[in-house]
Write a structure and sequence with these properties.
By secondary structure, this protein is α/β, with parallel strands linked by helices. The chain folds into three domains: about 15-195, 3-Layer(aba) Sandwich (Rossmann fold), CATH 3.40.50; about 200-260; about 445-680, Ribonuclease Inhibitor (Leucine-rich repeat, LRR (right-handed beta-alpha superhelix)), CATH 3.80.10.10. Helices cover about 40% and strands about 10% of the residues. It contains 29 helices and 18 strands. The strands form three sheets. Strands 11-12-13-14-15-16-17-18 form an eight-stranded parallel sheet, with no helix packed on it. A seven-stranded mixed sheet has the order 2-1-7-3-6-5-4. A three-stranded antiparallel sheet has the order 8-10-9. Strand 16, helix 28 and strand 17 form a beta-alpha-beta unit. It starts with 16 loop residues before the first strand and ends with a strand. It comes from Latimeria chalumnae (Coelacanth).
């Protein structure tokens, strides 16, 4: 009853779409997946969906917790016919358990009112474990040494590990929610991944129609999103919520302050400014000794100091008795910062952050305000790379364990964005810039990184750090050092694509690996096309675009890129994107106009079909740069082979042709040998 009667979240009745991926298909082409509405995941047509271990994946602010609670509410309201009970636990709660505990004891203490039901062997149960990226313990997934049952007390890290690997409760469904950056090598333990999709333009409008008081306000926000080109932020529910709060106070905060919301840190700092205006209105009523003379910036910095301490502890709980240590009190949290903190129950003497990003925001602002230039390298090495010296010098690292497992990616990005604001020491300034000395220290640190050897997660995080800084000098000097950017198998959001575009300005890349990045036509246009067209010195020698969501439109975009004078792409691999007939024709029609560099073109494992490949063959007649062509698995038949033979009579540069997994006869292959003895034709691998 408590769950079913709970307050609804601000997303209203907007259906969240999940992409369900069979983990056995990860790394294969094509990747098998389908979409389902979040509320129908275990009901209706999706009730045959029969996983035992599920990953619910989404970046910060995508609504993992919202969807988890929505599933629990659906059960509480009696709308699911799959589960007799859904139990919701957070990794924040599990972080508090510092003693050995059995799974039976955990379930009984977490759900005391349901303990009698949970002891039944045949109960149909779903356990949701929310927020793996907030778990401060190390998982021991490969350790099979300790055998256990449901009554065996275990350290909490071992208990969670055994739940994931099915050593405990193998017949119980378990869903774990996590961000992309923490699921490396976890997929093999799960039956499927449910990836939360971003809001599309229609859902953005639905969201603001629901949350705004009237249609006029909704329209004004949607117009702002379109005018200022911030749909990539509005596609994330958390940022849409913040944008609504900011616009509610636009009269107070001034319209100019909402025109440059182009980074996460700017969104959050403007959200903080707009929501904390009540401090300026009623300062005396909320202050108790010894905080009588504190100004809003001081209060925020004290909240930041407290938040940084809490961030390092791996928890999101603020206890009332601790507030006094930081010259704060309960009234400040309840009356001035209700958008940031809440009491879980009225009888509690503790508060929780409404979202982990709120905790990270306060902590990052505090660190940006007090850090000294000579501490930057030590702190960034610790926060970003996990490198902590035995004898730390910065007091910001005194409470950071040497082998910490804290996920600080979002905190670090916000810290970068707040460095200029922190240097200014004022929340009211919209024009603060980096100090010259700070800028030089940052450039030195970025240039010292071995970009070629970075893991995709670390590489993307660093690109975001540059994006959040929004400093043209840092971007120019650091991007010149980038030669290899490898984001293989790292799904990129719309915000990620914007960060990629900004942070690589002026770079001369030898390799850009974007395979398995879930890129669509719009992403290719925003990043690759605009990036090259707007950079006179842009160079990408080796561009890999395999296994994305590219259609014929991307073929046209890539043809424009090849036509651009400053483009020096020598190796272009786009398999297995879905570039079909018209796109393939446009792509290769442009190739002869490129600078004279050897080109390897891969369009394998697509759906070009006979008509599509004929467009490729026709382009070979005038192309004098292509040396290797991959067209495996494209439904090529004998009719297409006849056309190819004709085209090759006018082509002398092609040296390798990969035709594996197509539908043609041996007689078709024989014609190649008769025509071009120097041409290496690969039919089988």
């Amino acid at each position: 009853i408590y769950i079913a009667a709970g307050k609804k979240e601000p997303e209203g009745d907007i259906e969240r779409i999940l992409q369900v991926i069979d983990t056995k298909q990860l790394g294969k082409k094509p990747r098998v997946s389908h979409t389902v509405k979040s509320r129908e995941l275990f009901t209706g047509s999706a009730k045959k969906f029969n996983p035992k271990r599920m990953l619910l994946v989404g970046n910060t602010g995508m609504g993992k917790t919202y969807i988890s609670k929505e599933l629990q509410r659906t059960w509480a309201e009696g709308k699911t016919n799959r589960y007799e009970c859904i139990i919701y636990l957070t990794f924040q709660e599990l972080n508090l358990i510092e003693y050995n505990i059995s799974i039976n004891e955990l379930l009984e203490t977490s759900c005391e009112s349901l303990s009698s039901v949970l002891t039944l062997r045949n109960v149909n149960l779903l356990i949701i474990l929310d927020g793996l990226d907030e778990f401060k313990c190390k998982l021991n997934l490969d350790d099979q040494s300790l055998r256990s049952d449901v009554d065996t007390p275990l350290p909490i890290s071992d208990l969670v590990s055994k739940l994931i690997t099915k050593e405990l409760l193998p017949n119980v469904d378990i869903m774990v929610t996590a961000s992309w950056n923490v699921i490396n090598n976890l997929e093999k333990y799960f039956t499927c991944m449910c990836v939360i999709q971003e809001f599309d333009d229609k859902q953005i409008k639905q969201y603001f129609d629901y949350i705004c008081e009237d249609k006029y306000k909704s329209k004004s926000i949607c117009d702002l999103i379109k005018k200022d080109n911030v749909s990539h932020f509005a596609s994330v529910p958390l940022y849409s919520f913040m944008l609504h709060q900011i616009m509610k106070n636009v009269v107070i905060t001034s319209e100019s302050s909402v025109k440059n919301l182009n980074t996460s840190s700017k969104f959050l700092i403007q959200f903080l400014k707009s929501c904390s205006e009540s401090i300026l209105k009623d300062r005396k009523s909320v202050h108790e000794s010894p905080a009588k003379d504190m100004n809003p910036e001081d209060i925020v910095r004290q909240l930041g100091k407290l938040s940084y301490k809490i961030l390092l502890s791996g928890q999101l709980i603020v206890y009332a008795e601790v507030l006094k240590i930081y010259c704060l009190n309960e009234k400040i949290l309840t009356e001035c910062f209700p958008s940031f903190f809440y009491k879980k129950r009225s009888s509690d003497n503790s508060f929780e952050y409404r979202h982990p990003a709120i905790n990270e925001m306060f902590a990052a602002f505090y660190c940006a305000c007090i850090i000294r230039d000579n501490e930057l390298k030590e702190c960034l090495d610790a926060w970003v790379r996990g490198i902590i010296p035995q004898n730390v010098k910065s007091k910001l690292l005194f409470d950071v364990p040497i082998h910490h497992r804290l996920q600080l990616e979002n905190f670090t990005r916000l810290f970068m964005g707040f460095l200029s604001t922190g240097n200014d020491k004022s929340l009211q300034s919209d024009s603060a810039t980096l100090k010259d000395t700070t800028r030089e220290k940052l450039i030195e640190w970025f240039q010292g990184l071995q970009w070629k050897d970075l893991h995709p997660n670390e590489c993307l995080n660093l690109l975001h750090c540059i994006f959040e800084l929004q400093d043209p000098v840092v971007t120019q000097k650091v991007s010149a050092y980038m030669k290899n950017i490898r984001l293989f198998n790292k799904p990129l959001s719309a915000i990620d694509v914007q960060a990629l575009r900004f942070s690589l300005k002026g770079s001369k890349l030898e390799e850009l690996d974007l395979r398995f990045c879930e890129l669509g036509d719009k992403d290719i246009y925003i990043y690759i096309y605009i990036y090259i067209k707007s950079n006179k010195q842009a160079v990408i020698t080796d561009l890999k675009l395999w296994s994305n969501k590219l259609s014929e439109k991307s073929g046209e975009i890539l043809s424009e890129i090849l036509h651009t004078p400053q483009c020096v792409i020598e190796v272009l691999s786009v398999s297995p994107a879905r570039i079909v007939v018209r796109g393939a024709a446009a792509l290769d029609a442009r190739a002869p106009q490129r600078p004279p560099h050897d080109l390897c073109l891969t369009v394998g494992n697509n759906h070009l079909g006979p008509a599509g490949v004929r467009c490729l063959w026709k382009a070979l007649e005038s192309n004098q740069t292509l040396k290797t062509l991959h067209v495996h698995d494209n439904d090529i038949n004998d009719e297409s082979i006849e056309t190819l033979v004709q085209s090759l009579t006018q082509n002398t540069t092609l040296k390798e042709l990969f035709l594996c997994m197509n539908d043609f006869s041996k007689d078709g292959l024989k014609k190649f040998k008769e025509l071009r003895s120097d041409l290496k034709v690969v039919q089988k691998i």
